[in-house]
Amino acid sequence: MFPNLRHFHTAILAGILSILLAACGASATSDGPLAIRTPHPTFTPTPAAAQPQATATPQPATGGAVAASAPPDAAAAPTGAKAVVNSPLVNVRSGPSTDFEVVTTVERGAEYDIVGKNSDGSWWQICCIDGGAAWIIGEYVDTDGPVDSVPLAGQPAAAGAATDAATAPPVAAENPAPAAPADFTFDLRKQEQFPESGLVRVFLYVYAGNDSLAGYSLRISHNGADLPVEGTSFAGQPAFTWPFQDARQRYQNFKVEFSDVDPAGVWEVQLIDSAGTPVGPAATFTLAANDPQQELYVRYERR
């Protein structure tokens, strides 16, 4: 019936073996959880918090110039000297010359601090005009205070300069105006010299506030000898020492000339009243034989 019984048995054994293997596999699957490979952690980048930018802190300069300098017309430190406008409608300019633009116009009586001067002292730098310094020509202002120590504009005052008048070193001044004794009624506000070579000419401006005063004259001596002086000062609108607007132009209300006197020597000029009494301190000038500056100018203000 079964011609190939051996092959039949082999087939039966193979089937039984397959059943047993399947049963074992099922048993292994049901005996416990399948082993699963443990996952490796993955890196998730976290955005870094924004760091504040470092800001450089400016350090003060040591021993050198500061990073940014002040503009040329910035207000400088007051010197204690004052400028009082003595003429109506005076131009104030951006620099020490009529070539500079007019910043504004000021009236007689306006008072400003003097903070600088130009190289020849003919213009004053004043403060403050619109918050800054500006320039006014010297003949249109009366000055008061320590004008001899005013620095050149753009040049700082000497380092370590004493601010206490008691300890400040004396400053040499050309033709300094002496202080008036208590019994004088006038102060010598200014004494100056200007170019003139043909003769000795003396100008006087005597005033009180904004008014020229009449009836005053000068006592003038040359090397100790009194010279003849005729006439007296006039009131009202003063005249000028020079016909054109210039650094040498000044107010005057009396003039005297000496064409036949050798200029060499010491000239003393003093204000006197109508009775010939000295009412102000004397101004002293020293001239050479061919001195190029023989025009003398004095200005007296009543106390």
Question: How do you describe this structure in short?
Answer:
The protein contains 1 helix and 18 strands. With 303 residues, the chain is mainly β. Among the domains are: 68 residues, SH3 type barrels, CATH 2.30.30; 117 residues, Immunoglobulin-like, CATH 2.60.40.
What does this structure look like?
This protein has one helix and 18 strands. With 303 residues, it is mainly beta. A five-stranded antiparallel β-sheet has the order 6-5-4-1-7, with no helix packed on it. A hairpin with a 2-residue loop joins strand 11 and strand 12. The longest helix has 27 residues. It is rod-shaped.
Write the layout of secondary structure elements.
Layout: H1 5-31, E1 82-85, E2 90-93, E3 102-106, E4 111-117, E5 123-129, E6 132-137, E7 141-144, E8 186-194, E9 196-208, E10 211-212, E11 217-222, E12 225-226, E13 239-240, E14 251-252, E15 254-258, E16 265-272, E17 283-287, E18 293-302
Parallel strand pairs: 9-18
Antiparallel strand pairs: 1-4, 1-7, 2-3, 4-5, 5-6, 8-18, 9-10, 9-15, 11-12, 11-16, 13-14, 16-17
Q: What's the CATH topology label of the domain at 186-302? A: Immunoglobulin-like
Helicity range: under 10%
Q: CA-to-CA gap between the ends?
A: 167 Å
**Top-tier CATH class of the domain at 186-302:** Mainly Beta
The secondary-structure class comes to: mainly beta
